[in-house]
Each structure stands twice: as C-alpha cells, then as structure tokens.
Amino acid sequence: MNFSVIIPAYNEEENIVPLYDEIKKSLKNIGNYEIIFIDDGSKDGTLRTIKELSKKDKIVKYISFAKNSGQTQAIAAGVDFSKGTHIITLDADLQNPPEEIPGLINKLKKGNYNCVSGWRKNRRDNFKKILFSKLSFIVRKLLFNDKIHDAGCTLKIYERSCFNDFEFYGESHRFITTILQLNGYKVGEYVVKHKKRHSGKTKYGAKRLINGFLDLLFIKFWNDSSPRPLHFFGNLSFFQYFLAIFIFIEQIFKAIIISKFDLGPILVLGVLLFLNATVTFLFGFMFEIMLRSGPNGRYYKVKEMSA
Fold it and tell me: Which of 92, 134, 135, 225 is most buried per CB count within 10 Å?
C-alpha cells in the first residue's frame, strides 16, 4: 500500500459521495491507495453513506466512533488503522480539492520533505475563521519561529515515520506541522485551491480559538520542559523558597530591631510562598511519574469498523 487517505467526517452526509468521486478521479494514476473515512459520531446518515461506498469499492474503509471525539482523535484513529507508507489527510467538506493531492505528492518527493502542508492562500471562509488562522500564525511565529502559513489546513501528506510515537491531544491536529518541526522533521508548504463549503454547516466555533491558544502554550511548555519536568518545576519552587526565606529573614531582623514580632501581610505572603513552593516541587515529581506511565494520547472509542 502506497497511500492512505484519511478523512474525518462529522455530519457530512451530502458531501461523502461527491468527495469519493473526486478522490477516485484525482488519484487514478498514483498507484495503490486506500480511503479511510472516520465517522466522528455523526447524527445524520454519514455512516450509512460510507458503508454503502465500502460495499461497492473495497478501497473504501471506515471507522465509526461511539461518540463525537473531535478531529484530532479522528486523525489519530485513521493513522492507527491505516496501512500506507504515506498518509494524506483532508476534510470531508469538499473545501480541500482532492485534485491538489498529486501536487502535494510531487512536492514531497522533489523537496525531500517528511511532510507537506497545504496553504490555502486564497481562503473561501468567513472573516472569523480567517482571523483565527492569521492570529494562530502570529502566535506560532513568536513562540516557535514557525514559517508555515496555514498549519490549520487539513490537506497534508506525511511520511508514516512522522507519526512514530506521535502523541495526539487536545486539538493538536491543527499544529501537527509545528510539532513535527520541533521534533526535527522537514516540513514543506504547497499552495492549494480552496473552495466554498459544498453543503452542510461548519463545525467551527469561538471556543476553538481559546482551545487552540491553550494547545499552543502546552506545545511550547512540552517542547521546552517535557524531557526534564522536575527541573522546570524544581527551579520554580526554589525561586519561591528563596523569596520566602528572604521575607522570613527580613521579618526576623525587623522584629529584633523594634523588639516586636507582628503577623502582618508580608509574613503571610512568605508563608504562602513557602507552601506553594513545596506544592510546586511535589508537582514536579508527579509530572515525572505521569510522563513515564501516562497514555499515548488516544481517547477515541471505536463503535465499529470495516474489515
């Protein structure tokens, strides 16, 4: 198997067949491939439509979640169950034209990249989604010096090695290229067309802006501190210990000079700093333990899947 096309779908009943037709047309000359639809707990006839396609064409496979788990977990499941040496992801809303896939493949091969990300240079989305994309680029540029303009574009191609020990969490599907670059992989960019939504409604909400920002902060922390969490929390705790001890010494000298010891706000602050430093230090130990025994970031529950 050369390519695995992974397509998360949530309430995209009307888009499944047209998308399948476009993929077949665009990939007829690229060799062996499989199409894996991940039904993310859809409430409409999405799963039924996918099953019908699977019966007609053996290259179509599917995974159905027991409940809606989000696009990150859908991609994780697709990666886990795929067989291709290269993995292609795209949305089910037909805004990512499958006709762009051969261009991504050529870019990957010619540039000797591990991953090539689509760049929707001329997006056909509403102002809110475009604004989020631009803000995300600015934040990623500041935190990581990330030069990928459109990390949130689902249309991408990866070498399978990109997902060796890759941990999916939160809504990290939008920042896979950022994480790959931090891990030393070579990531390229390819300008792709972008179309208006064919049918159905967007699942985008304002909540994703906050979640995306929190995920970026976690990526920054994880990249800088995950190999040594005890060092990070230990340094933070010792800084608080230092401030607490400084306050205690200052209060002792003050009490000696005025021959009176008062329980004022400064002393209370010193006590709180000492207690918080202890908690922070213990938290560092807990983080070390969790790092060595935690899950791999897979939180999806499969209800059924094709053979």
Answer: 92
